[in-house]
């Protein structure tokens, strides 16, 4: 027995030695020319290899060394395929029966070079064309005897292996001048390669010259069946890509893309199981870190994004028998801002019908603004947004008929814009939409906005004709309380709004040709007007109230033009305790101008009317008011700082124009005429003050007795009427004419005063000059007591006194032109002395000449001569 065992061992050793030595005694290179000749009809390239030899120890077969196939000379002078070695191993048992069945094919260090030129021609196009031509030239009998499944069944191998391969691809059409794309360190292992059994596959490679193998694919696929039904292929695979540097792609992406990738690292893990004939379930996790891209649009000026961390994860199934995609879960996130999706799509390849839901988690607009500055550049920097936004959207239907529900919850969002808007996280803010679309008809059953106390709905319809939307919306609010809006708009705080209003509006047409109708109504609105900021100490707020308010506006938009009209009606109201009623305001407006066609109201026991224009772009304005019977005292007491200064009934008309801006008052110009009846200047006594100064002059007081005391008791200037004309330039009123008629004094009521001069709104100072003309009766009465006052008589024998009024508007000071008066009085006294001297000289001359007293004819020339000598 021992000898038998030793003999068997010796026999096995001899078999191994013979198998190892056999390739050295069997020469296959003599078949080289035959092999190459079989390839030439199908391959119009130079094909060669260094040698071929039989292999036994590693498996029965052959190994071709140094195989090479030349490239298309139009593309390069190098080889399109080069192998260090190609091993083909066959199965031994079928070989003993005269059948060749390949067990394994191994490609060692293959290098494949592919290219496409700028015209879109591939480097292998000539091979494809030549192969098709050779196939057509085959004898018909050969075609009949070569059935694809049978041949494939004979030639299919159990294993296919690629060791450390390399693929070089250059595309001058898509990526001109970008250089080749390289897949290196390619290892491929395919086991149980068959049409009737699952095939195991494992791939690893280095994509785009990374530092190590960063791409992996492993799993099973098939069987595909002898009838090659790829559409029913079963599979169970896992694909991964690890830390792929995206900057390698920046020159590979189409130039027309709006963005250019600058940096980032991409990792992918995808799993897929099932059958293309039944259902495929897939899962994926995509992680993109440090993504930075540049906006290539001209208007973006090459702005860069922030560093993005994006993830995409999903779990879904595709039911090919039902033509349905079901998304069990899907999530996309950008730096923590998550978008989730769930639902199903039927008939996705032909007529999609879906039932989907999309919602957000942790969406923070403030973080997105920093990440995408190129898309948020038009948002003012002063707008600050903080906090989450929750969006929920569900949709079902098809392309022809669908339903949509959307809710945008911004309740927890904080919004600040300068000192104009400050929404807190406790203030309600949301938008809701429900709608249906049937073909070209969109019906918005609900479009709702909730903001603080406001609840506005805007249902409507949109009809799309010739790709142009025609819309018809009806907007309405519930009664809106005006209280508490200062929490959103701080600048409303000083106004202390109360009351409420309602709004109705309609909007219809197209984006190029639309019309609107607006109605606002309110039973009551109360408010307070804050005092002027320059008041020291600050005055109390001034209250206001309007009742039965109605605002209507209609307009049209055609292309870039906007035209419309409006009307405002207020039945009654009061501002700072000044009541008014029946306010009517008619407006006409366009894009460039607002016209006040008519303004009318009853206030201060009179009427105010007017018209005007305003140009928003330039800020220019013009207004022409007309006043009738306005109690000016009440108006000034209510709206100015000159309380208890004036009274009377004001009538007049003015034209004013100017421009808005920080110094609007200086740019204003105005002119007009006015009258004031039954008036009173309560802050000074014009006639009394002037007469008081007159009576105090030396040479007059002794003649008047107690008259001065009587005059001083009057502290105001009362008159029957005041007529005037003025113009305004800058901040100064120019009183061109000002006449007070029937000024009341203690003696008469028909005195008058005429004045002219300026009134500065900047310094609040008066500078007027004119004259006070006493009534004839009063003048003669004074002259009887003081004859010297006749020196101030005018031809109608009325005393005329030059006056000046200066000082603050609140308390002006009248001045008498004493120099003029004293000069007139001096002339009067001089004339009296001359007359007395003349009379005395004439009398002495008559006595000397012994003329009779009746010699009038001689007396006159003598008197004239003396008058000339004395300068009368």
Described by the principal axes of the CA atoms, the overall outline is elongated
| Spatial extent as radius of gyration | 54 Å
Average residue pLDDT:
83
Count up the helices. 14
Low-confidence stretches: 1-22, 140-155, 708-712
Oligomer: single chain
Largest sheet: 43 strands, mixed
Q: Tell how many strands the DSSP assignment holds.
A: 46
Main structural class: alpha+beta
Binned, the helix content reads: 10-25%
What is the straight-line distance between the termini? Answer: 186 Å
Percent of residues in β-strands: over 45%
Write structural notes for this entry.
The chain is α+β, with helices and mostly antiparallel strands. Among the domains are: 212 residues, no CATH class; 234 residues, no CATH class; 40 residues, no CATH class. It is 18% helix and 49% strand. It has a 43-stranded mixed sheet that branches. α13 crosses α14. The N terminus is likely disordered.
Key structural traits:
872 residues, alpha+beta, 43-stranded mixed β-sheet, three-stranded antiparallel β-sheet, 14 helices, 18% helix, disordered N terminus
Secondary structure: elements and pairs:
Elements: H1 2-25, H2 32-39, E1 47-48, E2 51-55, E3 61-65, E4 68-70, E5 79-82, E6 85-90, H3 92-96, E7 102-108, E8 111-116, H4 125-136, H5 140-145, H6 148-155, E9 159-171, E10 181-191, E11 199-207, E12 215-221, E13 234-245, E14 259-275, E15 279-295, E16 308-319, E17 324-334, E18 337-346, E19 353-361, H7 365-371, E20 383-386, E21 390-398, E22 401-409, E23 414-417, E24 421-423, E25 429-438, E26 441-451, E27 454-457, E28 460-465, E29 468-477, E30 480-481, E31 498-509, E32 513-529, E33 542-558, E34 561-575, E35 578-590, E36 594-603, E37 606-615, E38 620-631, H8 632-639, E39 646-659, E40 669-681, H9 686-695, H10 701-704, H11 707-712, E41 717-729, E42 732-743, E43 751-760, E44 765-773, H12 776-785, E45 800-808, E46 813-816, H13 818-849, H14 856-870
């Amino acid at each position: 027995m021992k000898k038998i065992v030793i003999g068997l061992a010796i026999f096995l050793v001899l078999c191994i030695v013979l198998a190892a030595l056999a390739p050295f005694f069997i020469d296959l290179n003599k078949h080289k020319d035959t092999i190459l000749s079989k390839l030439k009809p199908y391959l119009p390239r130079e094909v060669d290899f260094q040698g071929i030899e039989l292999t036994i120890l590693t498996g029965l077969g052959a190994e071709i060394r140094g195989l090479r196939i030349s490239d298309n000379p139009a593309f390069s002078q190098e080889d399109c395929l080069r192998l260090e070695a190609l091993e083909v191993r066959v199965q031994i048992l079928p070989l003993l029966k005269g059948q060749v069945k390949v067990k394994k094919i191994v490609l060692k260090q293959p290098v494949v070079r592919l290219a496409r030129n700028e015209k879109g021609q591939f480097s292998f196009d000539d091979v494809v064309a030549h192969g098709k031509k050779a196939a057509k030239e085959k004898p018909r009998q050969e075609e009949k005897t070569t059935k694809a499944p049978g041949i494939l069944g004979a030639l299919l191998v159990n294993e296919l292996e690629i060791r450390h391969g390399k693929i070089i691809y250059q595309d001058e059409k898509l990526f001109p001048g970008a250089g080749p794309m390289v897949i290196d360190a390619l290892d491929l292992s395919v086991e149980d390669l068959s049409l009737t059994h699952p095939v195991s596959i494992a791939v690893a490679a280095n994509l785009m010259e990374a530092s190590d193998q960063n791409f992996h694919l492993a799993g099973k696929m098939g069987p595909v069946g002898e009838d090659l039904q790829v559409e029913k292929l079963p599979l169970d695979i896992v694909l991964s890509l690890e830390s792929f540097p995206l900057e390698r792609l920046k020159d590979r992406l189409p130039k027309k893309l709006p963005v250019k990738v600058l940096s980032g690292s991409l990792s992918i893990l995808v799993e897929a199981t099932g059958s293309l004939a039944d259902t495929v379930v897939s899962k994926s996790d995509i992680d993109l870190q440090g993504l930075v891209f540049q906006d290539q649009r001209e208007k973006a000026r090459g702005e860069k994004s922030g560093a993005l961390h994006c993830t995409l994860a999903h779990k879904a199934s595709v039911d090919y028998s039902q033509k349905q995609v079901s998304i069990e879960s899907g999530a996309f996130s950008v730096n923590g801002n998550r978008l989730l999706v769930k639902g199903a799509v039927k008939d996705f390849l032909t007529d999609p019908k879906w039932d989907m839901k999309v919602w957000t988690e942790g969406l923070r607009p403030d973080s997105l603004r920093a990440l995408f500055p190129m898309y948020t550049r038009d948002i003012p920097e002063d707008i600050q947004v903080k906090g989450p936004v929750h969006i929920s959207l569900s949709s079902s239907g098809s392309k022809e008929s669908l339903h949509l529900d959307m809710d945008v919850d911004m309740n927890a969002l904080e919004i600040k814009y300068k000192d104009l808007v400050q929404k807190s996280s406790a203030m309600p803010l949301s938008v809701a939409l429900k709608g249906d679309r049937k073909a070209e008809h969109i019906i918005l059953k609900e479009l709702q906005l909730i903001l603080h106390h406001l609840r506005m709905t805007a249902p409507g319809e949109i009809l799309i004709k010739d790709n142009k939307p025609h819309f018809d919306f009806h907007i309405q609010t519930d009664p809106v309380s005006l209280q508490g809006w200062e929490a959103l708009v701080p600048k409303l705080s000083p106004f202390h709004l109360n009351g409420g209003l309602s709004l109705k509006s309609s909007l219809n047409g197209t984006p190029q040709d639309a019309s609107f109708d607006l109605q606002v109504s309110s039973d009551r609105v109360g408010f307070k007007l804050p005092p002027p900021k320059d008041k020291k100490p600050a005055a109390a707020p001034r209250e206001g109230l309007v009742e039965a308010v109605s605002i209507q506006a209609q307009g049209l938009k055609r292309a870039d033009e906007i035209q419309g009209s409006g009307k405002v009606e207020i039945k009654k109201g009061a501002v700072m305790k000044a009541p008014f009623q029946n306010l009517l305001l008619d407006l006409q407006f366009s894009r460039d101008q607002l016209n006040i066609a008519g303004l009318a109201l009853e206030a201060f026991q009179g009427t105010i009317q007017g018209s005007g224009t305003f140009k928003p772009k330039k800020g220019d304005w013009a207004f022409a008011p007309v006043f009738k019977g306005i109690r000016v005292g009440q108006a000034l007491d209510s709206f100015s700082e000159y309380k208890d200064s004036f009274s009377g009934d004001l009538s007049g008309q003015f034209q004013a124009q100017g421009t808005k801006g920080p110094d609007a008052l200086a740019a204003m110009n105005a002119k007009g005429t006015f009258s004031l009846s039954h008036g009173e200047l309560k802050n000074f006594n014009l006639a009394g003050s002037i007469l008081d100064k007159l009576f105090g002059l030396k040479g007059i007081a002794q003649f008047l007795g107690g008259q001065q005391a009587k005059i001083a008791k009057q502290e105001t200037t009362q008159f029957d009427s005041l007529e005037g004309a003025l113009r305004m330039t800058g901040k100064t009123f120019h009183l061109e004419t000002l006449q007070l008629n029937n000024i009341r004094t203690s003696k008469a009521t028909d005195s008058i005063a005429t004045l002219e001069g300026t009134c500065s709104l900047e310094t609040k100072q008066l500078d007027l000059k004119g004259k006070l003309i006493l009534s004839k009766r009063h003048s003669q009465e004074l002259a009887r007591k003081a004859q010297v006052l006749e020196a101030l008589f005018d031809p109608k024998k009325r005393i005329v006194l030059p006056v000046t009024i200066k000082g603050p508007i609140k308390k002006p000071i009248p001045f008498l032109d004493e120099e003029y008066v004293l000069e007139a009085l001096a002339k009067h006294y001089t004339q009296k002395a001359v007359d007395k001297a003349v009379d005395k000289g004439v009398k002495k001359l008559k006595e000397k000449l012994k003329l009779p007293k009746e010699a009038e004819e001689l007396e006159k020339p003598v008197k004239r001569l003396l008058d000339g000598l004395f300068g009368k």
